[in-house]
Amino acid sequence: MDIRKIWYFWTSCLLIFGITQGSDETSFKFLTLPQSSVVVEGHHLVLECVGSNPAFKYSWTQNGAPLIGSYRKYVSGSDLIIRRADRHLDEGKYACVATSPDGDLTETSEPATVTVHWIRDKVEVQLVAPDSKDKISAGHDVTLRCHVEGIPDVKVEWYRNGERLSKTDKHVTKGKKLHVKNVNPNDNGVYRCVAINTAGVVNSEVNFVLRLTGTKWAEIQTVPQDKVAVKGSAPMFHCQYTNYDVLEWYFHDTGPLTNSSSFTVYKNGSLVIHNVDASKEGQYSCVGIKADSPEPPQTFSAQLSLAYLDPMNSSSIEPTFDSPYRILAEHSHSVFHCIAPQGRPTPKVTWWGGPHNTSLPSHDGKLTIKDASLSRHAGYYSCVAENLAGSQRAGFSIIVTAPPVIMSPPQPLTVDEGTRAVLRCIVSSAPYPATEIRWKKGETILPLDSAHTVSHLANGTLVINDVEFGDRGEYVCMVNTTGHDVVVSRPAMLQVIEKLKFSPKPGPKKLELGSNDKIHCKAKGAEQPIIKWARINSYGDLSTSFPSHIEDVNGTLHINGVTMQDKGKYVCTASNSEASINVTIDVDVVISPKFTVVPEDPIEAYEGYSIMINCAAEGLPQPNLQWDKNANMNDFDRSRIEVLQNGSLFITEVHRGDEGKYGCTAGNIKGLKRVETTLIVRTTEGFQPRSPDDLDPSSLPRTMAITLSIAAGYLLLVFGLMAWCRARRRKRKLIYLQEANNGGVEAGPADASGVNLTQPKETLEMRVKDADGTETAQSASSNQSKRSGYDKFAFDRRNLSNMMLLGSGEFGDVYLVQARGLKTSDPEETTVLMAKSLVRSKDDEALHEFKREIDLFSKVDHAHVVKMIGICRDGDPHYLLLEYTDWGDLKQFLLATRKDFKDKGGQGKPKVRSLSSGQAVTMVLQAALGLEAISEKRFIHKDVAARNVLISSDLSVKISLSGLSQNTYQKEYYKYRNAILPLRWLPYEAVFDDEFSTKSDVYSFGCLMWEIFNKGEWPFPDLTDEQVLSQLESKKLSWKHSSRTPEYIVALHEQCTHSHPHQRLTFSSIVTQLRDVMVNLNS
């Protein structure tokens, strides 16, 4: 037996076994285990955990104990999120715990170790030996230590007066210590240290001054001290020497400094720096010089730094909220943590607020509210960070809520259909947004705002515009106050008095001549109406008498055998005791297209000769005739091929490329009819198709001149060969004509054997090959099996019309088409679809991608993934038919919301309004749901972007894959290693390792989120493709978010676009987070 057959058999068995096992609700295994990780203190960490059964619930343990979640450390989906890692609270061993829905089965992962790297932010230089400064003397050794703590081990660098000290015989470094041997006046100065590890870099705040005294050199008395100054201020450094002749100041290597608009040097040695800015930050050195001294000048330096304070925002206070409100239930407890911004010097954090806006007690930036009450805690609260550079603040309002009380429930109401109904619910509660009042009819919660109903969350009013009969029923209001149970009112009955109306309203009718047909007229109202038909006669009067073949039966006109005289205006009248209504419709009599002349099939033609393909049709109105070749409309060479006024197709000179299927379509308002014929072109030996160059009179003399200049004899040889070939061709033509006259052929020459020379077009299944590229009996069997699988999606290409080119993709052109026969209620009604053609059917890669898309869209059935409608395989090219929406692709929609949008007319106003945050988040959630469905079916999309997402007029989105990489969106693709890639939407592993997976789709989904919140801008708009490629390879790509992007979307985006695939979220966890966001937005 073939080894490959055995391998296929066992692989299929294992796959089926895995599927049946995975379908068991109680089976479970970990697909992704939490990995031991290192995180820098203050940074974020995600521990990923993925299981095989989505029904299981997840929790985590820390050091063997159940983990209690907080706003800083919590479970998202199945993953554990740690924000602002703390070495005291977060180090340890973490395990993921999965529990079955019934609680009977629990699986625990192997523990993962979390290590927090940190470094102490206060560093000082200490004297180790001798044990006091007084014991330091020339000729002896001095040992200094850089006092710093951190994990992992800290590396220390040493500096004297701003110059780094290298390890020499004079300066010996070991660990955190510096050993200076045999000190002398050359070693005097200010010693600093810099501590470095993976957690950061910290400069010493407390430095050591080494100053040996003596009479032979200048002796420092006042050492300049480091200063932090506000921009624009004038800080002063003090410096005094004794036993000196000259005192000078230097800024880095510039100096000596003299009095100017920037500096003032006083006689007492002090230095003032005027109007400080960033250019004046750095090292300032005070140099004391003694004339005729054998020792070098003495130098002592100080550092000048600018004070700064970063701004604060809503994320500076945890837990974070999108709303400016914090809603607390009465008697509840809450803790708010203010995170100090970066600043120099380190800012101090305080809390202000409450009913009287006073300073509030806090510890380590934390504000604690116990036993919340309206009188003591309601009000505005601010976290204030202050330092020398000024102050920054972030704040929120606290609303304290009590249980709501319904003071006046909604009352019963009776209204006429078509009028306006208002239901009111009056409550006593905390104000909106702490309290929201929603409405419910029966078991259905009504939308907040629609064209029909409007629910006012704040005042509890429900407005129903243009009341319909279906609006009748019981309504209740639901009062939801944060922190308390929902209170529901007693029901109020809405009665609707139905008005007289047509249901549905009759419209124009086209009747087929000679057919039996009906014209319906239906109406309804509070009282059953009487329905009658009448006809407007030639005098403009109404007539209720009809010919014998027309009968009015309870409002339905029965026409038995439609005649031309039945054409005209008809009036349907419905009346009851309350009202009378009528509608006038136009009735037209038509005849469907019918072919009177059908082209022969097949038709054979000579190469180089002319041919006429006849086609004619009749109908009422007279049908139009259109020709297509291989299902492509107007795909003709107009210089040779002409459609005549009688509908026939005339080819003046047949070329080999004209061979194919030709379709003649006749259409009028009643419908379309189509016939096809196959044109077979017989080759004529020696025939050369005419081209524009053949008609250029200058080409022959130029060719002759060149030829004659080379060799006159060669020209004679060419003429001889031409004459011989011409005579041979003429002889063969005479033979063919003689055979034709004798009845040997009907239209042009045939193969001597009588066999049809045309070969069947290669179908999709015929291209299926074994892995080694050979056609085998097994592959033929597989082809037959695959063919039967595809047959259920077969769609007749004759039901396609009005093809409009969208662009070109990886394996062919992409069209918008109108398809008939999809709606059983009206088979002639058309639906707009997207058709992807397989033109490169000989290319195995293109064929594989075409089949992959068929499998994806046929097997993933989800509301937010486009559906596959069918496949056209009855000719070339093959078409993949996909669902399309009324608003097209999301990319164009987003661009239309931009202020700088230019339409085709050059107008600058946006076509549509900008999306609200809620609408944008809803779109992101719907896209995530669609991609989650794709990933659950084990498919990979590979090109998630706004251009491949469709949007409907109700702002719902569907994942699609138009893939217009060749022209329409060519600028959004990049050719790399002979592959066309959506570079800006792909992670490192997809571009450089060709590893596409669900994780790469998650990265692309993060890019799609970015597009939605940046109104269709493509990622990294300021970089060229080459720069994006380079920075992606070095993993230095940095995302810039617009100011309108919410913080929670920024955080989610960072988790999706992580450079390491295992650190990215799953689509299930993305959906969970977005649903939580939607709940918060709605509440």
TrEMBL record:
InterPro entries in the record: Ig-like_dom, Ig-like_dom_sf, Ig-like_fold, Ig_I-set, Ig_sub, Ig_sub2, Kinase-like_dom_sf, Neural/epithelial_adhesion
Predominant subcellular localization, coarse grouping: membrane
Binding site for Mg(2+): N948
Topology in membrane: Single-pass membrane protein
Name this protein carries in UniProt: Inactive tyrosine-protein kinase 7
Domain Ig-like per the UniProt entry, residue ranges: 28-106, 111-209, 319-401, 403-489, 491-584, 593-680
Localisation per UniProt entry: Membrane
Pfam families: I-set, Ig_3, PK_Tyr_Ser-Thr
GO function term, MF aspect, one: metal ion binding
Domain Protein kinase: 800-1078
Gene3D superfamilies, alphabetized: Immunoglobulins, Phosphorylase Kinase, domain 1, Transferase(Phosphotransferase) domain 1
Span of the signal peptide: 1-22
